[in-house]
Every structure is written in structure tokens, then in C-alpha cells.
Amino acid sequence: MFMFRKRRSSLTRRLEKARKRRSDETWRSVEDEAKGLLKKLNYDQLEILCTAVESRGKDASNCVLLPPENQPHVLCCQTWRWPELHDSGQLKRLPTCSSVTDPVYICCNPYHWSRICFPDSPPPPYTRFAMERLKPEDRAPSEVPLVCRDTFPGSLTTDGEDAMVNPREWCKLAYWEMAKRVGPLYPVEMPSVNVFGDIPFGDGLSLKTLALHSFSPPDPVCRTRCKIGLGVTLSREEDGIWVYNRSDNPVFVNSLTLEDPDSPSPTKVPAEHCLCVFDPIKAAYQNFEWNFTNCYGPVDPNSVRISFVKGWGRHYSRQEITSCPCWLEILLAPCR
Fold first, then answer.
1. Whole-angstrom Cα distance, residue 283 to residue 146?
2. 181 and 99, same structural domain?
């Protein structure tokens, strides 16, 4: 019993030491609440929480379940990740959290949550002509209505090899280093997929593995690849395609439903934030108005482009995404 209490006290001290701290009066009350929460956790829960916090999410697969009263998940996120967090409306649970459908408890592992990104510039509005352009065959039955993919001649990736014939695939992933595509297309059937750097963070697409196909990459590619870390989680959800940035660096995203067609520019998703990057309903409205060829090169309206660490466009030194060291293209599947 003595050894058990000693181990428990050790875990508690480690978690208290790892707290994110602020000096204002409001934060003192949060710290007091966090101490009370730690007393409620059993030894196994303390160990899971401590492992997740000290690894900064690299080893955070297990859930810490508590009753949802008083929003303990918000308190944990404030204490160990985001002291400036205000409420649960700023949070979204990662799709990889195994307790997402638990009807009784809520997961309080702070690394099972992401902060919702609110871009400075709002996405383009719906066009008033959209409903005239929608047809029944443009929607997949009993699924989120993704926009149909044709082999668009301006797509950098499809280019004659569009072979999405597996009805279970909702997208394929193409990894690029500057203007060169690296490795084969990666089909995705599960609702979510992890794309990470050189460490195997669970199941998903390892860019290190794909990089074996890249011979003598330039220094900017090697430096950027080393900064990807946990990378991103891509998830197909009821309201569209979400990107969860789990790395320590920003990612930059371009899609039909995020940008102004006349002046495309990527949206910055900071580290540890998430964003809906493709809204299928809005895409149906925007699709026919999109300027498919513009000053930034050809655009595939049914793809989402993600650059790791480096941005491009009018606010950056790189004018086109093909100048970015490491980037990913999400190729949405055809309707059926």
C-alpha cells in the first residue's frame, strides 16, 4: 500500500510540474480545480494522463474517462495545453479517440482534443445559381455528398492515372516534394487517416516511408520533413473533410470552399488546431464558378492541398505550392 501511494504521489507531482501556467487570479482557481481533478483519478488514469502529457501527444492512444459534469475535458486542456482556452466551443475531439461514442463519460486526455481554427478571412459565399447546377447523380447515396471527380486536365496528380474504382475509398493521398510527386498514391477507406513524418505514430501514411522513393532531395525538403512530426489527421465527417494539425508547426491549406476563386491564397492552420477544409455542400455551389487556371497554376476543384510548415501565395516568397518543400494532395473520390 505504501509503494502504491508513493507511485501515485510521484505521478501527481509530475503532472503538476507539467502544468501550463499563468499568473492572473482567474488562473489560480483553474489550478485549484486541476488539483481536485487529480485526486479523483485512479492510478491507471493518472499514468495514462502523465504519459500523454510528458510525451506531448506522441504516446496518447488511451482515454481518460470522467463524468461530463463541469466539463473536465476543458479543465484538462486548459491545464496541460491551452491556458487561454475559454470554453468547449473552441474544442473538437480527434476522430481517433476511441470513446467518441461513449454515452456516459467524456474523454479528458487533452491530446485527444484539438482547437478549432477560425481563419481571419471568411470563406467565399454560396453562389445564387448553385441549385440550378445540382443533379441527382452528383450525390452518393447514404453518404456525405462529395462533389463528383472528373479527370480534370489541370490536376497535377490525376494526369491520366485517375483510377479510383474501389467504392470503399473516399480519397487518395498524393505526397509531393516541391514539383515532384514522391511514391505511389495512398488510398483511404477508413473515415480518418494519420499522415505523419519520420516516426510511426500509429496507423497511417508515413512520409519517411514514401521518402524512400525520393532521391537526393534538396536541403529545404529534408529540413521541412524533419519538422512534420505527428503531422495531420484527415477525417471525413458529416459536415465535410476536417484536417487536425497535430504537429508543432502550422500547415497551410487550399481548397475550393476555403479560398476566393479570383484570388487564391492558403489558409493557415496553426499547430494543435483543426479546420473543416472541404464543405461538400458549399463546393457544389462554388464548383462551376471556380477559375480553374489562374496565376498560381492549374487547380483541381475536387482536391485539397496541404503544405507542411511553409506557406505559398501572395503573402509568401513561394508563389505556388509546387515551390513548397513538402505538401500533400487529398484527391476526393468520384460519386457512384
1. 8
2. no
Residue 237 maps to a domain: yes
Residues of the domain holding 46: 2-116
**CATH no. for residue 325?**
2.60.200.10
DSSP 182: E
- What's the number of domains the chain is made of? 2
pLDDT tens per residue, range 265-274: 789 999 999 9
Confidence of residue 138 (pLDDT cuts 50, 70, 90): very low
Neighbour tally for 177: CB within 10 Å: 25
* Residue 125 resides in a domain: no
**What residues have CB less than 8 Å from 145, skipping those under 6 apart?**
138, 139, 280, 281, 284, 335
Indicate if 226 and 86 belong to the same structural domain. Answer: no
- Residue by residue, DSSP assigns 102-144 as -SS-EE--GGGEEEEP--SSPPPPPPTTHHHH--GGGS-TTS-
Instruction: Collapse the DSSP code of 77 into the 3-class scheme (helix H, G, I; strand E, B; otherwise coil) and give the result.
Output: helix
Q: How far is 38 from 259, CA to CA, in rounded Å?
A: 44
Check whether residue 53 and residue 144 sit in a common domain: no
CA distance between the termini of the chain: 62
Rounded to whole angstroms, how far apart are CA atoms 136 and 173? 27
| DSSP secondary structure letters along 251-279 | EEEE-TTTS-TTS--PEEE-TTEEEEEE-
pLDDT digits (tens, 9 = 90+) for 89-134: 999 999 989 998 899 999 999 999 999 998 766 665 544 333 333 3
Evaluate whether residue 313 is within a structural domain.
Answer: yes
Cell numbers for 197: 513524418
Q: Find, among 145, 171, 178, the residue nearest to 327 by Cα.
A: 178
Answer whether residue 143 shows pLDDT above 80.
Answer: no
Residues 224 and 327 placed together within one structural domain of the fold: yes
CATH number of the domain residue 32 falls in: 3.90.520.10
pLDDT score for 113: 97
CA separation, residue 60 to residues 41, 115, 134, 280 (Å): 17, 17, 43, 31
